[in-house]
Amino acid sequence: MRWGVVTFPGSNDDRDTLWAIEQVLCEPAVRLWHKDTDLQGVDVVVLPGGFSYGDYLRCGAMARFSPVMEKVVEFAAAGGLVWGICNGFQVLCEAGLLPGALVRNRDRRFVCAPAYVRVEETDTPFTHLCRRGEVLRIPIKHGEGCYVLDPATLERLERNRQVILRYVDANGRVTPEANPNGSMGNIAGIVNEQRNVFGLMPHPEHAVEKWMGSDDGLKLFQSVVASFRNVRSADQTAVAPGH
Amino acid sequence: MNLEQLLRPVDEYHAIEHGLTPEEFQRLCRELGRAPNLVELGVVSVMWSEHCSYKSSRVHLRKLPSTGPRVLQGPGENAGVIDIGDGLAVAFKIESHNHPSYVEPYQGAATGVGGILRDVFTMGARPVANLDSLRFGSFDHPRTRYLVEGVVAGIGGYGNCVGVPTVGGDTYFDAGYNANILVNAFTIGILPANRIFRARAAGPGNPVMYVGSKTGRDGIHGASLLASAEFRGEAEAKRPTVQVGDPFTEKLLLEACLELMEQDAIVAIQDMGAAGLTSSSVEMAARGNTGIWLDLDRVPTRARDMTPYEILLSESQERMLLVARAGCEEQVRQVFAKWDLDAVVVGQVTDDGMLRAQFGGREVVCLPVALLTERAPVYDRPVRVPADLDDRQRLHLADLPYPSDWNDTLLRLLDSPNLASKAWIYRQYDWLVQGNTVVGPGSDAAVLRVKGTDKGLALSVDCNSRYCLQDPYVGAVIAVAEAARNVVCAGAEPIGVTDCLNFGNPEKPEVMWQFVEAIHGIRDACVALRVPVVSGNVSFYNETEGHPIPPTPTIAMVGLIEPVRMYTTQWFKAEGDAIVLLGQTREELGASEYLAVIHQKVAGVPPWIDLAVERKVQEVCRRAIREGLVSSAHDVSEGGLAVALAECCISHPEAPLGAVVELPASMRVDALLFGESQSRILLSLKRRHLGRLRDLAQQAGIPCAVLGEVRGRRLVVSPWIDIECATLRQVWENALPRRMESPAVNGGKNAQ
Predict the structure, then answer these.
(1) Does A10 contact B251 at a Cβ distance shorter than 8 Å?
(2) Distances from the Cα of B312 to the Cαs of B218, B272, B300, B366, B734, in angstroms?
C-alpha cells in the first residue's frame, strides 16, 4: 500500500511520520505538499503534527483551506483512510471531517510527556491489531489537546463507539489524574461514523522503536497495513467466483 | 528626524548618549579625520558595544584552547564545528538573552532561542536539539514566578513551533539573580563535514541579498543599550528594545536556507542578530577582507517612513543576509518564493574595505570596515581581588551544628528548587520532535541518535555559580569537569565545549577579576580534559543598581557515543544490582547546597578538585559503560551522596526502586551525606561485573567502593537515613509545582 504524508508550512512531525512508515514499517510513502491538488494515488493520507501556518489563528484553522485539503475531504468522502495526528487531528476537526474541537489544555500550558492510552474499539482500520482494553504507552506533546464537544454529540459518539482511545493510568483506569489536558471523557482519539477517518492527540510515530523507549505506536501503523491487505484479499475473494 | 538632520556631524553629547566614552569618540574622529554623522554614530556605537566588539574580553578569550583533531571551525564564526566521523559534523553554540528576558520574559526568551537557531543553520546545519540554561531569583522575590512562567513558555513557544526538540538544560534559583535573570540558549545541528557555510563576503561584484521577514522598528539598540549597559530599574521603559519572535517564519526561513544550501548559489551567509543589518554586513566584509555597499531603499520594511538609522540598527527577527554567486539571484528568489519569503538584492560586495550605505540618493554611511571590527577598542581592564574574599571563604566546620534529623534534612534538600525535579519546566518543551531523542530531560545528559549512523550525541550544560562566587577559578574548573562528567555518565566521550560567560560590569576591577579567573579555570580544565572550546558568548553588565550577579560561566558540553545503543541513564534499573562509588569523598561542605538550605550560609571554598584524578574517574566510567558493565551511572554533585542516591532511586520515568546502603563513618556525618566532593560517580551494576570494574579502577588508581545494593522501595543509608521512595519522590516532584501554582502566580507582573 502507498502512504501519503502531507506537509503544511509549519508541519514538524512530517519527517518523523515518514521515518516511521519508510524506515521502521518499511512501506512506501510519498510526500504531499500543501499546495498539491493530486493525492498521487495514495491509499492512506496522514496529516502530521506541528504548527500548520504557525497556528496563530486557531490550531488547524488555516490548514483546512489549503488546496490539498479539498482533495483530502473528497478522498475521505469516497471512503479513503485519513489519519490526523495532533495538529492533524485539529485540522480534521476544523475541516468538519471529525466532530468536536481541541482547545487550550486545562492548565493552559503545553505538555510533553509519555501518556497511557487504552484502546476502546478494535473494529477500525487503525486499531485492528490491538486488543480491546489494551494499554499503550505513547507520548503526547500539545498545547491545545483538550477535546470538547456538545453533550448530544458526545452521547452519539459514545453510542456509536467512535471513541477509540482514552487517557488512562498505567493500570488502564480512567481517572482525572490520568487526563493530561482536560479532554471530555478522557478522550484521546476518535473516528468518524464511517470509521475511515481517525484523529488522535498522542504521537504514535514517536513510539515505534523499542530501544528508544516504546514501540507501542507501531501497532497502529501495522493495523492500517494489515487491514488494507485484508480488504484487498477480501475483495479478490469476492470477485474470484465471477471469473 | 529628516535626512538632513541625520547627516549632520555629531558632537560628544550624541556620542555619550550612544554609549561611547569621550575617549572613544575622540579616537573615532581622529581615525575618520572628521566627525561622523548620526547614522554613522549609530553604526559605530553598536559595533563598538561590548556585545558586538568583545572589547573587555577579547584579550582573555584568546587564552582558551580551541584546536584539536576534530575541530573544523573554531571561534569567530556563527557557530563552532566538530567532526564526528563518517563525513558528518556538528555545529553548536550557546548564547545569552538575559536583559531582554528580564524586561519581557516570553519574547525575550523566545527570540533568544530564535537567534541561536539561526546561528547554527547559517553554518549549513539542520538544528537537532536545544538546551537552555536558566538562572532565576529566589522564589521570595515578587517577580520570580512571573519570570519563570514567561521564560519557560517563551522557550517552549518558539522551540516547539520551529520543530527543534529542547532536550535538556539546567535551572538554578538564587537571590543574586533577583533583578537580572540569565537565559542562555544552546543549539546543536548536524551537517556534512565537507560543506560548512561561513560568513565571509568574497568576490567583489557578488550581490548581497536580504532574506526573511521585513524590517520594523523593533529592537533598535538592543545590542548597545540593553545588552551592554547595567539596568537602572527601568525595565518597563525598555520594553520597546526587545524584539518580537515569529517561530513560524523562522521555520520557513530554516527550510528555505537549508534547501538553498543544497544548491551552489551561496558564497556567504549570516544571521541578522544583534545590531541587525549593520553587524551582519560589517562582519561578513571583515571576515572576507572586502567591503560592502548597501542600498537601504531596497530593504523590505514593515513600518512607514523608516530612517536609514532605523533600518541599519533594527533587530527585527527572522532575517538573514547572504552573499550570492553573481547570476544566481533568480535561483535564490525562487527557493524563497516557494516558502513565501522575500529575497531581495540590497547591495554588493566591494573591494574598497568600506561599509557604504545609500538612502534617498545620498550616501549616508562611509566607514572603514576594519575600524568597526579589528580596530575597534580593546581593553585590558584592571582586576582586583575582592576585599571581602578571605572573609567569605572562611568556614569552620567545628562551629557548624548537626541538624536534628537526617531524614528531614534529606527531604528539605530535595525540596530545594535547585535540587528538585525540573519536570514542571521540561514538560512544557517538546523534547521528542525529529524522533532522535534517546534520553530526554531528567538524566545527567540528554542523548540523541544520529540517523543513518551508529552514533549518538550526549549533551549537558552546567555551572554552579555559588562555587564561582566563592572562587571563580575553581568554580569554572568544576563547571567544565561536571559538564564532561555528565556526558561521560551517559557513555560519551566529551568532544567539544561552547561557553556562555555571564558576569557583572567589567569596568569594576572585582568583576573583571572574576572573569579572568574563570577564563583561566575553563582553560586549565579544557586542556586537562582535552576538549576544545569552539564557540561562545560573553554577557557583561549583568547587574542591577550596582549589584553584580554571581559569576556564571556556563559550560555546554557535547559528547559522542559510539555505538549509541551503549548509552546509560542515571536511574537504578534492577533489584540486586550492586551500588558502587567511584572516587573519593572528602570532609568538605564549602559553598554547598546543604550549607545554603539547612544553615542559610554561603561560605567557604568550593570542593577540592584535581583534574588528573577527574580525568581518570571519567575514563574508568566511560570504559565500564563501553564494556557493557554498567546498569546506571550518575554524577554526584549538589546535595552530595545522599541526594545522588535518592535521585538514582526516584528519577526512573516509571516506578522508583529503593536502595540499601552502608557508609563508613569516616568523617562528619553531614559532610559524608551531603558534601559535594568532586570527581565522584555512582554506578549500579550486576554483581558479576564487579571484578572487572575493580580491575579498571585499580589500573587507574581510582577508589572504587561497593556501598550497597538496589533493593525494595525505601532508601536506607544506615544508620542515618530510612525513607520510602514514594515520599522522596513526592517532595522532589512537588517542589517546583507547589511554588509555581500558589495563588499569586501573576502577582509580580508589574513588580520591579
Answers:
(1) yes
(2) 12, 11, 12, 13, 48
The upper half-sphere exposure of residue A234, i.e. CA atoms within 13 Å in the direction of its Cβ, equals 6
Annotation marks residue A203 as catalytic: yes
CB B40 within 8 A of CB B8: no
Q: Chain A residue closest to B163 (CA)?
A: A12
CA A141/CA B164 separation, integer angstroms: 13
DSSP 3-state of B200: coil
Q: Do B161 and A112 touch (CB under 8 A)?
A: no
Q: Output the domain CATH number for residue A21.
A: 3.40.50.880
Residue in the block written with cell 557604504: B356
Given the residues A59, A86, A130, A146, the one annotated as active site: A86
- Domain that residue A155 falls in: 3-242
Tell me if B323 sits within 8 A of B268, measured CB to CB.
yes
- Is A134 designated active site? no
Quick check: is A205 catalytic? yes
Q: What is the pLDDT of residues B182-237, one digit of tens each?
A: 999 999 999 999 999 999 888 999 999 999 999 988 767 665 555 566 655 555 56
Q: Express each pLDDT in B411-431 by its tens digit.
A: 999 999 999 999 999 999 999
Which pLDDT value is given to residue B664? 85
Torsion of CA B373, B377, B378, B384, to 10 degrees: -150
Contact between B184 and B133 under an 8 Å Cβ cutoff? The reply is: yes
Nearest residue in B to A50, CA atom = B161
**Mutate which of B126, B152, B161, B450 to test chain A, going by most A C-beta atoms within 10 A?**
B161
**CB-CB: which of B251, B428, B565 is closest to A109?**
B428
Does the global pTM surpass 0.90?
yes
Q: How far is B414 from B646, CA to CA, in rounded Å?
A: 9
Which one from B18, B97, B634, B652 is the annotated catalytic residue? B97
- Please count the structural domains in chain A: 1
Q: Pick the residue of B428, B433, B451, B571 with the most A CBs within 10 A to test the interface with A by mutation.
A: B433
* Mean of the per-residue pLDDT values of chain B: 94
- Interface confidence (ipTM) of the complex: 0.94
Rounded-to-integer distance, Cα B160 and Cα A215, Å:
23
